[in-house]
Amino acid sequence: xxxxxxxxxxxxLPLGPAAAQLLQPKPAFTRADSxxxxxxxLRTCYDLTYYHLAVKLDPAKRFISGSNLFRFTATQDFTRxxxxxxxxxxxxxxxxxxxxxxxxxxxxxxxxxxxxxxSKGSRDEFTVQYSGNPTVAKKAPWDGGMVFTQDASxxxxxxxxxxxxxxxxxxPTKDQQADEVDSMxxxxxxxxxxxxxxxxxxxxxxxxxxGYTRFDWAVRNPINNYxxxxxxxxxxxxxxxxxxxxxxxxxxxxVLPENLARAKAQFAANVKPMLKSMExxxxxxxxxxDGYKLVDAxxxxxxxxSAVAYGNKYQNGYLGKDRSNTxxxxxxxxIIIHESGHEWFGNNITTKDIADMWVHESFTTxxxxxxxxxxxxxxxxxxxxxxxxxxxxxxxxxxxPYGVNQExxxxxxxxxxxxxxxxxxxxxxxxxxxxxxxxLSSTFYHQTVTGQQVIDYFNRESGRDLTKIFDQYxxxxxxxxxxxxxxNNQVLARWVAAVxxxxxxxxxxxxxxxxQYFTPxxxxxxxxxxxxxxxxxxxxxxxxxxxxxxVD
Length: 552
What we know:
Blueprint: H1 17-23, H2 31-37, H3 41-44, E1 46-58, E2 63-74, E3 78-84, E4 90-96, E5 99-100, E6 102-106, E7 109-118, E8 123-132, E9 145-150, E10 156-161, E11 183-191, E12 195-197, E13 201-207, E14 212-219, E15 231-233, E16 236-244, E17 247-255, H4 260-282, E18 292-296, E19 301-302, E20 308-310, H5 334-341, E21 349-351, H6 358-376, H7 378-388, H8 414-427, H9 430-443, E22 447-449, H10 451-462, H11 467-475, E23 481-487, E24 490-496, E25 506-510, E26 516-518, E27 525-526, E28 538-540, E29 548-551
Parallel strand pairs: 1-11, 17-18, 18-20, 21-22, 23-29
Antiparallel strand pairs: 1-2, 2-8, 3-7, 4-5, 4-8, 6-7, 9-10, 10-15, 11-14, 12-15, 13-14, 16-17, 19-20, 23-24, 24-27, 25-26, 25-28
């Protein structure tokens, strides 16, 4: 394995934890943030089981209208609940047992009062009818909303992208990640000559009066809110299949006419190798019942479950660039690999609170390196991960504040990926590491989780207590720094870390020798394995470990 000789100060070192905290602005959260991100009794009182979202889209007027059926099981006795819809959209009525019921609004939250108590354990439903002009995204997918544009022929091309901002920006829903429906029907009516492509499988196409056609898409598995997608355009369809771990997997591609030839070539080059790699490392694709789709999108891309949005302009890299600057990232289509990786992390395993979005993004960003490894060998994968460090800021903790719909640092991508590779190096058993990754997918199959559950899983299944390592990289902005001194013919080392009693084992060696593991403490202690080491022949493995090193 490639190593670097680290006997000089790194190009940069993180601020100490106290100084870093002083420089961080304190976020000011509002009641609206709590209503959006919190798990209050008005949300937890009902467990969603099914949605039927039925909408009609007028692209010319940028207008949407329709309804959503909420089917649920009561988790306690209640008479009042909360769902969510952005304030610029009108709630026309809420229907319960065929009658209108009263509701009030506070910002983007809607509170429904039922005429009689709903008993714990009972199964019930209500329907929300709504309409309006949804928020138009200015820079999708980085801001939420709907995208209205045109294809090369001047025909309407419309898509949704709402992760983070929230699905309630365009449809009424319980807008949080902790509660997912078990299945869903999505019915979208669009002007004749256009098609809608949504999640799941196309069940039915119905010609309507007034120049509209309805497309019914059935999702047979749990799905989170922000994954529910509407894609409207003059789509052309072609298909293929993949012989996967659970049998034949249907591959369906929906692209604009002007992109058909390029799409056939680009998808053929990337999709099946991606699926082979992901299934090898993470287990079977999670949505065999609903199939795999790529859909031409008027934005860069998004991990919409079983209908991945694609907008990378049919080129390798990230819009033609290699984010790792190693050359390896220029050999494959970043959006196909990354966004499809979310089918395992983000879609199959979804965090209950977006403060734990590192579970989605760290593992998916790491999946890019595993894909490189699958295609070009382990050394190439390690080089790609090392190259990801150029994107790390070490600015804020990766875990965000809970209960207020707030993510942590964007370092959840590349720093999170490097954390996982550091753990792989600590475990030092690639077969066991693969087993851990596959077991993660099966243990939390189709579930919502907390970040702590994922940490507990790795502690339990690895047979090691990795808590302090996770805490240092996820809960603190600063990197752990290994300080080394040479005194009295001895090599002394200690950890300087924000986490007390930080216990990351390291690999060290004399130049040209075999690596040996040792675990520094917070006090300077001799590295007994390296008798005779000097500044000239000491090597610390910082190629596979993401740490700082300071040599005195």
